[in-house]
Amino acid sequence: MASHMPVNHSLRPLYRLLALLTGLFVLAFGVLGFLESQGDPLFEAGGARALGLRTNPALAYACLGAGVLVLLATLVGHNLDRLVNTWIGAAFLIAGTAMLALMNTEHNVLNFTLASCIAAYAVGSVLLTAGMYVRVARR
After folding, report:
1. How far is 59 from 44, CA to CA, in rounded Å?
2. pLDDT at 138 (0 to 100)
C-alpha cells in the first residue's frame, strides 16, 4: 500500500500547512477546554464549552496531547509528520464514529455532541489526507 502513496508531492507544503493549522486548532481547543472545565470531574458530561464545542477534562487532555504531537511532528518533518498525521487522523475519525454511536447514552465519556462529532471528522479527514501527501523520498 505504501508504494501507492505519492512521494515528494508538489502540494506537500500546502498539506503541511493544513496539518499545522489543524494541530493549532486542536491544541487551542485543548487549552481552552482545560481552562473552561478546570475543577470538573474527569469524565463529567457538563456544560463546559470551548470554541463552541462541549468539552470535559478528559477530552481537553486528549486534545492537548494530540495537538502537541501534530505540531511537533509537522515542525520536525522527515516523514515523522506522515506517520503522526495518519495515526492521529485515523484516531479522530474512530473517536468521532464511536462518540456518534454513544452520544445519547451514559457512555458518552468525552461529552460529545453532534457538532463535536462533525469537528472530529473534519480534523481527522484533514490530518489523514495530510498524512497521505507529505511523504518525502529518503536520500
Report:
1. 10
2. 73
Amino acid, single-letter form, for residue 112: F
pLDDT along the chain (139 residues), means of 10: 67 90 98 94 90 94 97 92 96 96 92 95 97 80
Supply the DSSP symbol for 112: -
One-letter amino acid for residue 87 of the chain: W
Give every CB contact of residue 28 below 8 A, 6+ residues apart in sequence: 51, 67
Q: In whole angstroms, give the CA distance from residue 93 to residue 28.
A: 19
Question: Looking at the chain, how many residues does it have?
Answer: 139
Helix (H) or strand (E) holding 54: strand 53-54
- 52-57-63-69 Cα dihedral, nearest 10 degrees: 150
Identify whether the C-beta of residue 135 lies closer than 8 Å to the C-beta of residue 37: no
3-state secondary structure of 103: coil
* Nearest in space to 89 (alpha carbons), one of 127, 135, 134: 127
Separation of alpha carbons 102 and 116, rounded Å: 12
